[in-house]
Amino acid sequence: MTTTDGRISLPLLPPDHPLGRSSITCEYRCGNACSHEAPNTSDNAYFGDVVRSIVSRRGMLKAGAVLAVAGAGVAGLAGSAAAHPDHGGHGGRPPRGPKGLDFTAVAPNREDRIVTPEGYHNSVVIRWGDPVLPGAPAFDFDNQTAAAQAKQFGFNNDFCGLVPFGHDRWLMVSNHEYTTESAMFKGFSQANPTEEQVKIGWAAHGLSVVVVERDRRSGKLLPKVDRRYNRRITVTSEFEVDGPAAGSAFLRTTADPSGRKVFGTLNNCAGGVTPWGTILSGEENFNQYFANAGSVTDPVAKTRLTRYGLAGAASTRKWENFDPRFDVAKEPNEVNRFGWIVEVDPLEPGSKPVKHTALGRFKHEGATIQIARNGKVVAYLGDDERFDYVYKYVSKERYRPGDSPSARAHNKKLLSDGTLYVAQFTGDSPATEFDGTGKLPTDGEFDGTGKWIALASGNKSFVDGFTAEEVYVFTRLAADKVGATKMDRPEDVQPNPVNGRVYAALTNNTDRGKPGKEGPTEINPRNGNKHGHVLEWEESRGDHTALTFSWKLLLVCGDPATADTYFGGYDKTQVSPISCPDNVAFDRHGNLWISTDGNALGSNDGLFVVPVSGRYRGYLKQFLTVPLGAETCGPVIEDDFILVSVQHPGELDGASADNPLTHWPDGGTAQPRPAVAAIWKSGCRIGE
Ligand code: FEO
Ligand code: CA
Ligand code: CA
Hints:
The chain is of the alpha+beta class. Helices cover 12% and strands 27% of the residues. The structure holds MU-OXO-diiron (FEO) and calcium ion (CA) (2 copies). MU-OXO-diiron binds next to loops.
């Protein structure tokens, strides 16, 4: 429906769920995390409030010292639209549009297909059940087996990463975040899954490595069943644990008294491609797979479990019925072996994947890498939970350029030893200016400064009362102790290769401002934050190993027609509505691409692009939408094609394998299948 000024009236339909996600997605993806109490009940105050209370007690002199750090950084961020136009507008030249955004924005919609701007093609690269390994049988929905699934593309692909592998040829790595058994099996009984269904679920989790090639004639990206490089990693694949907590007593189990060998990876959400050609993948909502944490009575163990959202009886998928390691009452440490960043080397198909304890244990969204000026490697990390934190890791050793075996072996150890930090953000406007409505403060910006607080480095802990092992294994509790800033669900955190600033998607937090919960702050300014926001920061002196930074909110998402949204100061009548930013990526111009998870405006999820500097900073345009019930994730932005993961298509309330509510991608009466899709325009670069 359009209004008289031509705008689409939002929301399109009342969303199925307060956050726009169906209840099925909530249950299977994150174990209904949002309907439970947010596990951060620490009394950790927002540092802006702490600073202001210091100011009021000790006078402005002290505050001046704190905020002086900000000055330099904020100046660095102040590349305003008017001061630094991208191009045009000077010397009488006519202004031109922003680079890479030459397409007509896709309008919010509820179509059951991928909708792109005119002139763009799209095709499925690979779907759930398509062959990955030699000998994989053709997908047969009604006759699935665990043995077949272990050779086929897994379910609900999230992150997608490409490692170049020759001309028009890549190793494509996909995370299979979770399974939705009610959509996978007709007549499924959640109370009583069969052993084969459970084992299909194990095989449908993990990662896939698939060789993909571009067909020059059609432009399509096609998967190959490559005997040497294709790979499936599942819940039963062996991982090596490395870093300072490897071998820790917290990680030892009956099956692995060494604490160094783990079978499987769980709920792999987002990730990143490293400069040395490996893939990092975040183990996110791992807690939901473990049963009977509620029966643990030891207070220390209980506190640790509760902080990670483990408090229940039977698990959703009942895996504990077929493997006692998923029963916390029987195998208390198994759960500590999940919640890590894992590294997979697709270029060495025989290599064992690794769980990196040096990057801490939490609900890792993903990890992205920046090589700092001094050669050290910095990993940016988000803990995707309401009121949880943003982290970074700085390696002890330096990156070694080149792809020789010795350089790669060296670089693959960079995430094994370093320093883990958590972020503390401070606003620069008075607390009284934040009433939870999202109204801009009088200085015109949600902005301020911040610092990185060291938690541990190698075997040394910086947190009182915590050993280094405790910091790494129970990172959330250590971060609570040092006063980290409670954020509105930090998802992807990624450095921009063009301007060096770092961008974080903060998806939403409907609990902000609720009784007993932290209220609005400059960095999380809306109560009941349904639509999320996008944060930008610049490390001091542009040095990614710096311990201080300055920050701004780039976007406060939602319907641009409402007063509580902000688009980098850009004219809001010109931008696309956006809700629930999740994954981020960059194109060659440094434009920020954002995919969404759970559109609380009632539209299908989508992919958006926004310039981050120059006169068009904040000019957000929607590039595509995915089919009904699906989430857009894992965007890969290449010069001449885009890949998106179309995760959980048709996952709508009331949908099941017995009652599919979409038939994407195959149409007719086919069951919906999660897939990777490619989008391109013949003979053109994206957005040009
Ligand atoms: Fe799996 Fe944070 O989304
Ligand atoms: Ca401000
Ligand atoms: Ca995500």
